[in-house]
Amino acid sequence: MLFDVGAQGRNLLLNTCFLLIALCGILALVPWGSLGADELSRLLRWLALPCLAIALVYELAMPSGYNIRVDLLLLVPIYAVVLATSAFRWVVRS
Known about the structure:
By secondary structure, the protein is an all-alpha fold. The protein has 4 helices and no strands.
């Protein structure tokens, strides 16, 4: 488990959301259009929306007593990559 905040259900939710956000970051970095998956590349223009929804669930599930959030050192760059690649796909229209 990546996170252990005490409650088993909250741990499962936080860990699942964290892994889904990491998966969104990986999906955003793969150049699907050049691999012949043009439909998938067009579909991934919308990747920022589910990533945002997962991030909101993640942030709402995080207990308020955590002042030092080391997880944000990983999450903020992933958010930036997903947003930038989604914007790039919209501009280029690949």
